[in-house]
Amino acid sequence: MKKCVSLFLTLAMVLSMCSFAGASSLEGTYDVTLWVGEKAVELTQKQVADFNASNTLGITINATVEAVSEADSATQMVTDVEAGADLYCFAQDQFARLVQAGALMQLGAGASEFVRTNNDAGTVAAATSGDAVYAYPLTADNGYFMYYDKSVIPEEDVDSLEKLIADCEAAGKNFSFEMQTSAWYLASFFFGTGCVSDWVTDDEGKFISVHDTFNSPEGLIAVKGMKKLVDSPIHVSSSSGSDFASNSAIVVSGTWDYDTVSKILGDNFGVADLPSFEVDGTEYHLGSFNGCKLMGVKPQVDAVKGAVLNQLAQYLTGEQGQMERFETLGWGPSNLADQASEAVQNNATLAALIAQNAYSVPQGQIHGSWWDLAKVIGDDVKKATDEAGLQTALDNYQEKMAALFTMSDDEMNGWTVIGSINGDGWTVDLPMEKGEDGVWKTTEAYAMDAGVEFKVRQGKSWDNNFPAENFVVETAGTYYVTFDEAAQTVALAAE
Amino acid sequence: MSEKNYTGASMKRHMGLQASRRIGNTAAYIVLTLISIIWLIPFVCILLQSFRVESTWQVGYVIPQQWGLDNYRNLWNTDFPKWYMNTLVMALVTAVLQTVIVLCMSYTLSRFRFKGRTFLMRFMLILGMFPGMLTMIILYRVLKDLGMTQANSVPGLILVYIASSGMGYYVSKGFFDTIPKSLDEAARIDGATRFQVLKKIILPLSKPIVIYTVLTAFMGPWGDYVFARYISFGTSAGMNVAVGMYNWLNKDQIASYYTMFCAGGVLVALPVTLLFLWLQKYYVEGVTGGAVKG
Amino acid sequence: MKRYSDLEYLKLSKGKRIGYRLASFFASIPTALKNGLLAVWHFLQNLGAGIGREISDLVTTFREGDVPTRVSYVIMGFGNLCRGQILRGLLFLLFEAVFIFYMVIAGGYWIQMLPSLGLQGPTKELDPILDVYVTTYHDNSFKILLYGVLTIFFILAFIYTWRLNIKQNRIAMKILKSGKKLKSGKDDLRSLVDDQFHKTLLALPLTGIIIFTVLPIVFMILVAFTNYDGTHDGYNNNLFSWVGLQNFNTMLSWKGSGGQSYAATFGEILSWTLIWAFFATFTNYFLGMLVAMLINKKGIRLKKMWRTILVVTIAIPQFISLLYVSKMFAQNGILNLFLLNMGWIDKALPFWEDPTWARVTVILINIWIGIPYLMLITTGILMNIPADLYESSRIDGANAWQQYTKITLPYMLFVTGPYLLTSFTSNMNNFNVIYLLTGGAPTNPAASSAAGTVGYTDLLITWLFKITMGAESQYYLASVVGILVFVVVAVISLVVYGAMPSIKNEEDFQ
Question: Could you report the predicted ipTM of this complex, rounded to two decimals?
Answer without folding.
Answer: 0.84
